[in-house]
């Protein structure tokens, strides 16, 4: 079988191992007439024709039909095809094949270097690739590609969680090392995932529990923003159907909420807050005030939320209904005077947890914000 030349992310050995499902060690090689550049604004590289350069890469020999099926599945999710090339191997010119995009809508940027990519995107990509390859044999590359943004967003949430450290005053010194996982199953893994664990953990007295089953719903990190105009002393609320309330049998499943959205891969929490406020509320915050970062329901949901108050001007002449039709959204927004907002909270009309938390924060800090 013709060997494959990898010029980009599959040069990263841990990623190649995940995609192939086995260990394979390629040899160094070069592709004359090309350079490897960042795809501008993206997290991956592209080949750019350059007569005076040679693209550094690796050459993979001994690939099996199963290897090719797995590689075609992984690269097929990104609309890549195999193209015949001749590379310079350790012993001279070698016929090879390389994955090239069917269409290249990206603009080349600066030269791409593997270590720079590993430092910035490596861990996230390994986690995302694990989820992509778990779909091998169950879904088409096109189905995986359609939900790839949420796969990467979920992967980023793992990376962010691993770097998160809270102050420890009254908290116990117990850590992840005091939990043992014996098995993990994912009976459902699409836009959301359901994970079933078999675990045991160390008790506060130092002994260990018996192994037991625990299940969680994995979403991905998100932010909420409550737009507030201190001049008019008004907030903007959004309202939409929430299937969780409907599924529980609530006769009023349309809920009043703050602006909310999942944190995309490569975004900070603040980036998402600004983007979602523009998309859902059609306003531009001039400042964000962090309310809190927290787990909304950690007994069964794997998600971290960061809530903000967004300072902005709230005009009467605005778009009052929005949302992405491609995602089946139908969202209206309403301007609410502060005093009415407090009355709604006290009467129990506000039942969305981040909204309740944000309104209470605003009640504590309103005078400072208005000043």
Written overview of the protein:
With 371 residues, this protein is α+β, with helices and mostly antiparallel strands. It folds into two domains: 4-145, Hypothetical upf0131 protein ytfp (Roll); 222-370, Nucleoside Triphosphate Pyrophosphohydrolase, CATH 3.90.79. 29% of the residues lie in helices and 36% in strands. It contains nine helices and 18 strands. It has helices at residues 13-20, 65-76, 114-134, 141-146, 148-162, 243-247, 269-281, 338-347, 353-370; strands at 4-6, 27-39, 45-60, 80-89, 92-101, 108-111, 179-189, 193-201, 212-218, 222-229, 234-241, 254-257, 259-262, 287-294, 301-302, 305-311, 321-322, 331-337. A hairpin with a 4-residue loop joins strand 10 (222-229) and strand 11 (234-241). Helix 3 crosses helix 5. The model has no long low-confidence stretch (mean pLDDT 94).
Task: Please render the helix and strand layout as text.
Blueprint: E1 4-6, H1 13-20, E2 27-39, E3 45-60, H2 65-76, E4 80-89, E5 92-101, E6 108-111, H3 114-134, H4 141-146, H5 148-162, E7 179-189, E8 193-201, E9 212-218, E10 222-229, E11 234-241, H6 243-247, E12 254-257, E13 259-262, H7 269-281, E14 287-294, E15 301-302, E16 305-311, E17 321-322, E18 331-337, H8 338-347, H9 353-370
Helix pairs in contact: 1-3, 3-5
